Amino acid sequence: MNTVALNTDQAPPISVPLRFFTAAPLFLILAALILVSAADNPFAAARTPVLLAATHCITLGFMAVIMMGAMQQILPVVIGSPMPASGITVWLTFLPLLSGALLLPAGFVLGQPVLLNLAWPLLLLAFLVFIVASLASLARAPARNATRTAILLSIFALGGALGSGVLLAHSYATGAALADAGQLLTTHVTLMLGGWMMLLIVGVSYQVVPMFQLTPTYPKWLTATLAPAIFGVSLLSMLPLLFQFDAHRLTVATQTLFWILAGSFALVTLGLQRRRRRKVADATLSFFGLGMMALLCAALLAIATPWLPTIEHLETLTVMIFLLGFAMSVMHGMLYKIVPFLVWFHLFRGGMNVGVPNMKEIMPEPRMWRHLWLHRGTLAVALFAPWWHAAAWLLALGLLVQGVLLGYALLGAIAVYRHTLAAIREN
Ligand code: HEM
User: Where are the domains of the chain?
Assistant: First the structure.
């Protein structure tokens, strides 16, 4: 599959994606503080209020905020179709998302139903505006390629995940009984992680890996089949919820299929990276490679789990490796690549031909390497966190310092942008 030509003339103002990206690191710090507030090991039991709160600081406050910010850039520039009414759409997404992402964890950790009942309507508004605007943009998009298909399917998956999440939150807040809470939770997690997050990363990778990492393009056999297959498997996993039947075998089968597909994406991407044209070390490439290795580990562990019934916490560990090892590594790598590019591009587009700082001046690479090593250390201790409270503390400390490092790097890039712009205006 060939990469598309970028529609840079349709790029939104730099403040649009950057407001999302700069808000995200705060939630890593918040997740860390919530984890250390627990009296016992927060990873030792699933679905405790502290774990639900920390999980949503990371998934909703950090990852969803970055993904929704990135989409404000990807749809106009990569897909060639801006979001409708982008000025109002961005505020109707950003503000309720941020307040909902603060209120939901607060509602879980403080056990305050009133906060949960404030959170889910705000999140419903933010996600619905985002979904409708994204679908309108995709419907009008001139491009017809595998990236567009993967993004479209990821939005459909998000719709289902949102519905189940809101139902769960409402039931959590009011105590209202749900027909099948367990299956609804499985649907929520499967469609949020395996649907929205996985499909969006796959679709965007088809463009950014060859473009930024100078690898060959993804093979046609993969781009034509992977996203529809992942989406199909996610839908299959919803059948027990829709038709109320015992699903153990189907769940094991669909989850195994999903992980085989995810694992193949990781293997193909690692193979492409090895064939890249420029062999110099690059922190953003290493973040991406680490993400693919983690996805492969999560896939192998998830496929093995049903055969290891005596070992506890393997499902929690799989979700941790998927979220912290795969998704977070890829998002760090993308941010460290895309933000300096955005600053450089908007200064250049702003008519400044001389004295435009290069990307290494906008975001110095030694800081990225330091963050990469800290992240590797955080992942290493995360492997022991479900069994060892001290490791859970070290994981929290790792997330806290990562939030500070990433926030500092992003604010540094904004400072370079502002100073350079001020210099232009003075001249
Ligand atoms: C509209 C926003 C969301 C709402 C209202 C929401 C609501 C919920 C609720 C109420 C639960 C707990 C259910 C229970 O234990 O009874 C839950 C669990 C979970 N949610 Fe969300 N969620 C949202 C967004 C997300 C996002 C964006 C992700 C990931 C990308 C996510 C991932 C998870 C995971 C992994 C769990 C299981 C946690 C565990 O088992 O400890 N959620 N969600």
Answer: 1-143
